[in-house]
From TrEMBL:
Cofactor(s), by name: [4Fe-4S] cluster
Enzyme class: hydrolase
Sequence intervals crossing the membrane: none
Note on how the cofactor is bound: Binds 1 [4Fe-4S] cluster.
Role of this protein: Adenine glycosylase active on G-A mispairs. MutY also corrects error-prone DNA synthesis past GO lesions which are due to the oxidatively damaged form of guanine: 7,8-dihydro-8-oxoguanine (8-oxo-dGTP).
Protein name: Adenine DNA glycosylase
Reaction catalysis annotation: Hydrolyzes free adenine bases from 7,8-dihydro-8-oxoguanine:adenine mismatched double-stranded DNA, leaving an apurinic site
Length: 360
């Protein structure tokens, strides 16, 4: 679809979205500010994360790093620790890298034009549109899943929303619809309608402020939109997680590589295994000797933890083990007292392991 022929009153549609937003918007902490830095933080945190989950993390993060300079000059481990539990840690790393670019290249001022803001690490079209429209009141589109769902239904658009060209289509539609007088209210209104009213499986069409404009509602076809190709199920991966304790009652933790999944976070030693692994004790003993120069005798499975990423699913069988020597630190691993574990940033999966170990 290169050109949309609108069969509805687009000006009234835009007006209804804006009016409803100002009358019904939620009281969220990032809406108390038009600081582009704070809006940037909130939009990054809200990617793939529920609003209620984000609120305490946003408040803590802004309190800890209230200005661009505070975040730019913080050490990465402090940033990751503050982000701990929110997941998708590459968001935090890219946010800090982007903020450093703003400090170094733009004199600590978030750019107010599309070309420059899109050049910043970690900022894509959605975040750029959100910052430009909310902080700088520019009529730029901010297209997320909520927005595509609402407009797919209103305009009966059957293009696959998983495809990049469909996102461009929605951006062009918003350029047609967004009012120059209140682009912030329009973009946030579309997002809010998607979050609270035009829900994926149970849309509340009876209270929707734009139901009168909605072609899917008119045809009773709301649940057929948006069109999206089903994702491939995440690939299962299996690991033995070993938590050895030395004679000083310290446990062993390992820092992940500085690139890739969960980069620079800490974890308990993980050994890749098969679902029904033969000679598992022998494999664990050999790996722990080769990696950390310790001899362990793993006990029975203590607990099992599962964690789903977008493309893989971890199955973690957790073992404890005592060693008869004093552990020695290596370049990427340390022996630490249980009480000190909280000072290290761990991914959610290993926070679950830690919680179990502390409780038992």
């Amino acid at each position: 679809m290169n050109k949309i022929e609108y069969s509805l009153d687009t000006r009234q549609l835009s007006s209804d979205i804006v009016q409803w937003f100002h009358d019904n918007k939620r009281d969220l902490p990032w809406r108390q500010s038009e600081d582009p830095y704070h809006i940037w933080i909130s939009e990054v945190m809200l990617q793939q994360t529920q609003v209620d989950t984000v609120i305490p993390y946003y408040n803590t993060f802004v309190s800890r790093f209230p200005t661009l300079n505070d975040l730019a000059y913080a050490d990465e481990e402090t940033v990751l620790k503050t982000w701990e539990g929110l997941g998708y840690y590459s968001r935090a790393r890219n946010l800090q890298k982007g903020v450093r670019e703003v400090v170094e290249t733009y004199g600590s001022k978030v750019p107010d034009n599309k070309k420059d803001i899109l050049s910043i690490k970690g900022i894509g079209p959605y975040t750029a549109g959100a910052v430009l429209s909310i902080a700088y009141h520019q009529p730029e589109p901010a297209v997320d899943g909520n927005v595509m769902r609402v407009l797919s239904r209103v305009l009966l658009i059957d293009d696959d929303i998983a495809k990049a060209r469909t996102r461009l289509l929605f951006e062009n539609i918003i350029y047609d619809l967004i009012p120059e007088t209140d682009p912030s209210g329009f973009n946030q209104g579309l997002m809010e309608i998607g979050a609270l009213v035009c829900k994926p499986k149970q849309p509340k069409c009876d209270v929707c402020p734009i139901a009168a404009h909605c072609l899917a509602n008119e045809e009773g076809a709301q649940l057929e939109y948006p069109v999206k190709k089903k994702k491939t199920p995440p690939k299962p991966l299996y690991f033995a997680v070993v938590v050895p304790q030395d004679q000083h009652q310290r446990v062993l933790i390992q820092k992940r590589p500085d690139k890739g999944l969960l980069a620079n976070l800490w974890e308990f030693p993980m050994i890749s295994v098969e679902p029904e692994q033969d000679n598992l004790d022998g494999i664990i003993e050999c790996e722990m000797k080769n990696r950390y120069n310790i001899i362990v005798k793993p006990k029975d499975i203590e607990t099992t933890v599962t964690h789903i990423f977008s493309h893989i699913k971890w199955h973690l069988n957790v073992y404890t083990a005592d060693i008869s020597t004093v552990g020695e630190d290596g370049e990427t691993y340390r022996w630490v007292k249980e009480a000190a574990l909280d000072s290290f940033p761990f991914p959610v999966s290993h926070q679950k392991v830690m919680k179990y170990i502390k409780a038992n």
